[in-house]
Amino acid sequence: MTTTGEFRPHRVAVLALDGLLPFELGIPHRIFGRPRDARGQHLYEVVTCSVRPPGPVETDADFAVHVAHGPETLATADTVIVPASYELGPLYDEGRLTDDLAAALARIRPGTRLASICTGVYVLAAAGRLDGRPATTHWADAERFQRMFPKIRVDPDVLFIDDGDVLTSAGVAAGIDLCLHMVRRDFGTAVANDVARRTVVPPHRDGGQAQFIHRPVPDPQLATTTAARAWALGRLHEPIQLRDLAEREAMSVRTFTRRFREEVGVSPGQWLTQQRVERARHLLETTDLSMDQVARESGFGTAQSMRQHLQAALGVTPTAYRRTFRTGGAERHGGAGTPR
Fold first, then answer.
1. pTM
2. What distance in Å separates the CA atoms of residue 313 and residue 141, rounded to the nearest whole number?
3. Contact in structure between 142 and 154 (CB atoms under 8 Å)
């Protein structure tokens, strides 16, 4: 909100560095450029900027991109996102900022939300924004990153980490998961799911899901767990045992569990909990069902069980979550500051 009460979209500044990956540069624009409120107003304003005055920025492809905004844009941002670059120079080799990058980052206002995609995390690390905090990056670079920045608690196994005002993600498609997560955190599941549908990507992959899944594309000669997952999604409100899932695929429990983890990256139990949390979020946002009814419909059984799971997954109670996303969320989250 502005001082006059007029709605202002949340401003996302995307910092384009030489050697950037075009795909990852485009992720924030695609994800944050979609959400609108009930009046058709954009919930976010996305602006690309450089550490230099307006002009060309080299990519890792055979073309450059013209960036129309300079580093002064960072001073106006509510969220700053740093995509990956393959030409970080002394930042990558020695873990130190160049003078122009340090000057640009100094323009960022206190309280601004920061996020990185893949090796963009080197920028946040060299700036000291990750000391003593958890972070992730592409699994192939995690060991080197940890050696260079020993004060950071690097987790190489997850898609992204949300540490409040600083968020980091693994490479490439994990940047989509991170951006969708921020939309979900800012404006709720319904808005994020709409963006995912329009972008034709899965609406939710939990940040704790493994980066490297051993069999992301199932061997056609082997049975998969796809049918069992589809069956479970239609029965989240019912008790579902591991043996029920295994029987759907005519596998032993041991074989099914191994195959499931290879394909999905988490155990069947973890996956079921994730799906039930998403179901509860949807019902809390879009219905007036009581807490007991939401708990039953999402498969948690009791309101107390649902409360424990949502508190663990989201850091808020079901009541607080409903209050946040059922009472003018778009207007409240617009404007300066970091959405919560």
1. 0.76
2. 27
3. yes
